[in-house]
Specification:
single chain, 165 residues, mainly alpha, elongated
């Protein structure tokens, strides 16, 4: 039996998409935690990376030390992006094999670092003006990609059991 990749990619699987939403939320939270740890290790405000993502909505004032609004806006933007890519990840990975999803997560982390951090987010003037080197974003993107393997857990939790025990 031959594996039909196009058929797999064109399938309609709402349960898998919901698993992708949940996996994206979880992976976004993991990415924020890693970003805060990296930021603190570099001697910056731990909330700075989250606030930085709030700048497209609130402008440069989002990164002020006392800006709770910047942190909320940034967290929402991070989660929206994480959920979008989580659904795409879940849709295009038709397996619940943890080892396969972890390997794909590494590739997805590299993809996220290249396209989301280095290209998409840098197109926003306040983020570009912050001149954050790409290096600190790399472990954040890899943590996000690896955390997307949680899609398997959510898929198994949501999918009705096929066994009759």
């Amino acid at each position: 039996m031959e594996y039909n990749l196009v058929e797999t990619w064109l399938r309609r699987d709402p349960i898998r998409w919901i698993a992708g939403i949940l996996g994206g939320i979880f992976a976004g939270l993991v990415a924020m935690a890693v970003a805060m740890a990296v930021s603190a290790a570099l001697g910056w405000d731990p909330l700075f990376p989250i606030k930085l993502l709030g700048t497209p909505l609130l402008g440069a004032s989002a990164t002020d030390l006392q800006s709770a609004q910047g942190a909320v806006a940034g967290a929402l933007i991070i989660e929206v992006i994480a959920v979008f890519w989580g659904v795409v990840f879940a849709h295009f990975t038709a397996t619940n094999s943890i080892s396969a999803l972890l390997l794909m997560g590494l590739a997805w982390g590299a993809f996220t670092w290249i396209f989301t951090w280095n290209l998409f987010l840098q197109s926003f003037k306040p983020i570009f003006a912050a001149r954050i080197p790409a290096g600190p974003a790399l472990p954040v993107c890899f943590a996000y990609g690896l955390a997307l393997a949680s899609v398997a857990l959510f898929d198994r939790m949501l999918r009705p059991s096929t066994s009759q025990t």
